[in-house]
Amino acid sequence: MVLSTAIRLAGRPSGRSTLINFLGRDGWAARRAAPVPPPAAVAPAAAAVPTAASTPPPSAATMISAPIDVVPEVVSTVPPELYADEPASKMRKIIGRRLTESKSTVPHFYTSIEIPLDNILGMRKVLKNDFDVKVSVNDFIIKASAMALRDVPEVNSTFDAKSRTQRTFDDVDISVAVATPTGLITPIVPSTSSMSLTDISSKVRDLATRARDNKLAPEEYQGGTFCISNLGMFGISEFSAVINPPQGAILAVGGGERKIVPGTVDLEKGERGKPQIQTTMTARLSADRRVVDEATAGLFMSALKEYLNQPKLMML
Predict the structure, then answer these.
(1) What's this model's pTM, rounded to 2 decimal places?
(2) What is the pLDDT of residues 176-197, one digit of tens each?
(3) Could you give the dihedral angle defined by the CA atoms of residues 57, 60, 63 and 64, in that order, rounded to the nearest 10 degrees?
(4) Which residues lie closer than 8 Å to 32 by C-beta, 6 or more apart?
(5) CA pair distance 141, 130, nearest whole angstrom
(6) What are phi and psi of 263, to 5 degrees?
(7) What three-state secondary structure class fits 139?
């Protein structure tokens, strides 16, 4: 009798445990050579039941149009008194629909960069102590992003899925994600690149307050050419944000963390400085590949880092 390939392979010193090791060579060969029992006799069908020959097969259209019964998932292992079901609010439904559409239809790609914040923190102290001006780190990030978008306008674009066209804007209108009791909303700071730090700070505070009180007009949160989501105040170090169509990109900003970084190298003397403690943050850009390519995203992130490294450039 000719043994099967599995039996012949089992005889090789492969070191692997197969079914042959459990049954043995003779047991496996006997199992394969055993006769197959005949099928059980089928009782004659009742006269009232039509046979397969008399019943035409269902057409393809009928099979496609026939509804499929989906059994809903039922939580049976948890007692009902230990959980509560709440219907989703209108805003939650809209957010879920739009973000599901974004993740399933928009080709996301991501670029990350670490940005030192020590110069920004030092500038904040100078503005507060010498000029009694209070601005947040997020205000600096919004201003730096607006200036980087001005330098790399390809990122300041939207994509029309119907006409398959990209639209690039001259004005920079940044949407800022704000958490509200009913969900996340993105009010717009119009003409961000032409605003000063103090103007941006006042505008963001006003929009955030009215957003939490549900007092924003539709034109104040519908639109925008770019979006920023900052979770640093919640202790998040880094994350990836979902693009808000038709915008072409969104910047996810984490909180600052103190790290030990190597000292800089003096090329003339060939010496390396001492390690230093530096406060850095991680910024991650989620971009639509139909609008932005990897090189363009890299240029934008480099420009953003340059402006945050030199905050005096944002004072001009």
Answers:
(1) 0.74
(2) 999 998 889 999 999 999 999 9
(3) 180
(4) 4
(5) 22
(6) -70, 155
(7) helix
21 phi/psi in degrees, rounded to 5: -65, -30
The secondary structure of residue 116, as a DSSP letter, is E
Q: Which of 222, 240, 251, 246 is nearest to 157 (CA)?
A: 246
The whole-number pLDDT of residue 169 equals 96
> To 5 degrees, how large is the angle CA 77–CA 81–CA 86?
95
One-letter amino acid of 29: A
Instruction: Using DSSP, state whether 281 is helix, strand or coil.
Output: strand
> Strand runs (DSSP E) across 2-107, as ranges?
none
Average pLDDT for runs of 10 along the chain of length 316: 53 51 56 60 49 54 55 69 88 90 96 97 95 95 97 96 93 95 92 95 96 93 96 95 96 96 84 91 97 97 97 88
**pLDDT tens profile 17-49:** 455 555 555 655 566 666 656 655 555 544 444
Exposure b/e, 264-294, CB count within 10 A at least 16 = b: eeeeeeeeeeeeeeebbbbbbbbbbeebbee
DSSP one-letter string for 173-228: -EEE-EEETTEEE--EETTGGGS-HHHHHHHHHHHHHHHHTT---GGGTS--SEEE
